Amino acid sequence: MIKQYLLSPGPTAVPERVLLRMAQPMIHHRTPQFSAIFAETKQMLEEVFQTKNDALMLASSGSGAMEASVVNLCSPGDTIIYVNGGKFGERWGKIAAKHGVRAVEIKVEWGSAVSVDAVAAALADHPEAKGVFVQASETSTTTEHPIREIAALTAKMDGCVTVVDAITALGVIDMPMDDWGLDVVISGSQKAFMLPPGLAMIACSEKYWKLAESASCSTFYFDLATERKSQMKGKDTTAWTPAASLIIGLNEVLKMMREEGMAALYARHALLAKATRAGLTALGMKLVSSAPATSATGAFVPEGVDGAAFVKYLRDTMGVTFAGGQDHLKGKIVRVAHLGYYDLFDIITAISAIEIALDRFGAEVTMGAGVAAAQRVLADRFDKV
Amino acid sequence: MIKQYLLSPGPTAVPERVLLRMAQPMIHHRTPQFSAIFAETKQMLEEVFQTKNDALMLASSGSGAMEASVVNLCSPGDTIIYVNGGKFGERWGKIAAKHGVRAVEIKVEWGSAVSVDAVAAALADHPEAKGVFVQASETSTTTEHPIREIAALTAKMDGCVTVVDAITALGVIDMPMDDWGLDVVISGSQKAFMLPPGLAMIACSEKYWKLAESASCSTFYFDLATERKSQMKGKDTTAWTPAASLIIGLNEVLKMMREEGMAALYARHALLAKATRAGLTALGMKLVSSAPATSATGAFVPEGVDGAAFVKYLRDTMGVTFAGGQDHLKGKIVRVAHLGYYDLFDIITAISAIEIALDRFGAEVTMGAGVAAAQRVLADRFDKV
Asked: Could you tell me if A355 and A368 are in contact, meaning their C-beta atoms sit under 8 angstroms apart?
């Protein structure tokens, strides 16, 4: 037996009580029983979004909600601005292209956060832009972008909104949608929400809904106005058949989040991220990001080590699943997740596994150095006796 | 305690072994482990579709796959023909309208099957039509349409295909996709596939793929050519994050179907449908459909009984969930499902519950008459000793 550990930035581990809740007998989704669960779930979800807007649930992956955010805002020929600093940023451009929307790219070096000045300059060059599309946390490079500052720029414009892919940020960092003036926040089930994939969430501001009225891009399944009418308080249902078992699982997840308390949850994530950075750095590994995310940490494997073989070895021989790199980072990095159902000793497991694997790959490593560095950070969790 | 029975035509009951399979710890979907499950599942799924084409899996409800079948075939301004004999038939027209596709409606009285002549006439009037869109089983009226005969009409045309929504037909009736020349077959997880909702399946013929090359309707998430490239044999993955737990559940479901054998599965469904019709008819209830489906049976409640209250009473007081009627059938009918994880005594439960409820609602009913009629049919399942 090789015990298995899932430490990738999505899917993340699903808590046992959530797995068991979802394993209960199926109920019909067009019943008061389901509507009661739906309404309660939606309300708790809106607390995590920190919004008075509707947090809508879609039966799709996060990419579906990303497309929804574009097509419900734009008409063919419209202009949007997007931050491309990784695989997910790049996707905005691909979605826009499919719908005949002109996408102005702000190219950012992988591992760097976008500069707010670059966004301001793009907005000055393109006052016609309907929105700035950006990741709160770009998972491919484990980098956080300054979404609050970007939202402050579009807040001054009548016809332009800030759309945030927070798929690996919501429920990880404190990002109050309404306070920060984020117009759209998107998330997905298989990240901080600790569920299997297949459920996306999206909340939109009144400013967005207003602009959406004149949008003419074509969609049937992702028509958010139709979903909003169905999902609003008192209706408590969905336009199309919902991913019911995931919504029931989400109900359980949100209760767990409430029990922990959001402040404690954000502090836990921040501590785990800090400890991971300390551990990997102590092993001589260079971080991928200069604005490292709270959700996951990417680090370069040492020169001479084949990163793809390294990640495969960890998974197949040692039972520990991390993510590797994508595109030009393929074979060069390892990404350690710490969002969702993770705590201190998951980080110790992660760092220890990487230490052992580095040793097995013939890299120079002081056994225990990474774990010790992580421990020094994690010890802060407990008061001295 | 009121023991609960789910006898609605979607969601249907999920077998215990499938619930438990899905409750296993999460695995990553970009791994050889998941790809092996994916490849095996897809192959078994194609056996149920009875096709050499790729059966693609989408993280969406069936409505998403319906939209996919339209947008990947058509360009704005194209014409399609659709059969509207109920709520789901109507949906083709709504999807087409969203994408600027001209939809020629063949209106069919609710509860009737479309006449093949009417389809032939529409095709003669509209030789420019890219496709005929039809339900194999229209769930809202529990009616089967003659899909084989319709496919034979479009088979003679170079530029027109038959697109079949088989969401409540695939895995219920024997409908060999390739033998019958069906160009597109669509299904969903929460019907005969005995899973929670959130996974759609779609297979397309070479003729469809050829026509799809020139389609220019806009979609990103439902771009089937992109999905096909990812899901093809040897690639064994999905373009976007898959509904992984449902695919793992589907793997278990398809093994159950193999164990039963498809001939036995079709025979079981046919027998349950026949027994349900016999039971309801013996209670003096009139069937909704003159071409009744094998998936579910709709019947009118007696004059003077409020059908909505009747279905609610069965669910809330007696613990048995059926579906009621939609639109102008609202409050007039009850729909009993018999697709998926159902067997003899589920039908006895259904008929018995309706008998008792009829009695409680003051309708004239001979206690046991419906059950006896159903039993006479179901007894055929067992050889005489």
From this structure: yes
* Alpha-carbon dihedral angle through residues A23, A27, A32, A36, given to the nearest 10 degrees: 10
B248 with B335, same domain: the answer is no
Same domain, B137 and B198: yes
Residue A360: CATH number of its domain = 3.90.1150.10
Asked whether residue B6 is domain-assigned, the answer is no
**With an 8 Å Cβ cutoff, is B187 touching chain A?**
no
Do residues B268 and B212 share a domain? no
Tens of pLDDT, residues B223-281: 999 999 999 999 999 999 999 999 999 999 999 999 999 999 999 999 999 999 999 99
Q: Cα(B31)–Cα(B43) distance, rounded to whole angstroms?
A: 18
Strands (DSSP E) found in A209-361? 296-300, 320-321, 333-337
Dihedral sign, CA of A273, A274, A279, A285? positive
End-to-end Cα spacing for chain A: 38
pLDDT at B242: 98
Question: Same domain, yes or no, for A321 and A293?
Answer: yes
Q: Which of A12, A23, A31 sits opposite B23 (nearest CB)?
A: A23
Domain edge (last residue) among A204, A224, A258: A258
Domain co-membership, B252 together with B274:
no
Is the same domain home to A330 and A270? yes
Kindly indicate whether the ipTM for this predicted assembly is greater than 0.90, answering yes or no.
Answer: yes
What is the mean pLDDT for each group of 10 consecutive residues in chain A (385 residues)?
A: 93 96 96 97 98 98 98 98 98 98 98 98 98 98 98 98 98 98 98 98 98 97 98 97 98 98 98 98 98 98 97 96 96 98 96 97 95 96 90
Distances (CA, A) of A25 to A35, B195, B264: 16, 11, 25
The number of domains in chain A is: 2
Same domain, B275 and B239: no
CATH of the domain at A156: 3.40.640.10
The verdict on residue B165 lying in a domain is yes
Across the interface, whether the CB atoms of A197 and B315 are under 8 A apart is answered no
Q: What range defines the domain where residue B188 resides?
A: 16-258
CB contact under 8 A, B221 and A19: no
Cα separation, B1 vs A156, in Å, equals 58
Q: Which residues of B touch A12 (CB under 8 A)?
A: 26
A26–B contact, CB cutoff 8 A: yes
Instruction: Work out the angle at residue A19's Cα, subtended by the Cα atoms of residues A16 and A21, and round it to the nearest 5 degrees.
Output: 105
Say what the pLDDT of residue A272 is: 98
- Chain A residues with CB under 8 Å of B165 CB are none
Q: Which residues of B touch A243 (CB under 8 A)?
A: 61, 196-198, 243
Min Cα distance A24 → chain B (Å) is 7
